[in-house]
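Below is how a single chain appears once it has passed through the pipeline. First comes the sequence as given, then the structure the pipeline wrote out for it. We keep one example in the README because the format questions we get most often are answered faster by looking than by reading.
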Amino acid sequence: MGYVYADIELINALDILDAKRHLIGEDEIKRIHVNILVDTGAYMMVINENIQAVLDLPFIEKRKIRMADETVGEFDIVGPLMVKFANRTATCSAVVLPGNSEPLLGAIPLEEMDVLIHPQRQELIVHPDHPDMAVYRG
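Resulting structure:
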């Protein structure tokens, strides 16, 4: 199977709360649309500094992260971040990679959104058994 990319929207979740409290307008919610690599081998949501500059997510902490090439680096964790795909959302934190590194949609937000990779079509899809709403595993 080749690489699978998905068009998703990333939103600063704190801005959503501020808009609900009427502290900012709906048009002030920071968001960005990205075509992102779906990576079931990555646990977390991974964004880059350019995406972080647009979303301005609050810093949470630094963590050591093992990369795909087995190197370990220390990276900022930011959030909360809302991830939107089709009729699904997930709210999570994100690892920030340097510069314009490729962002990744990891296993945690994939599970929360209850989406699957369709192997024949090589695309991200809403779980066909639960088309209207995500079903979580307990």
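The helical segments are 13-20, 49-55, 107-113.

See the next section for the split statistics.
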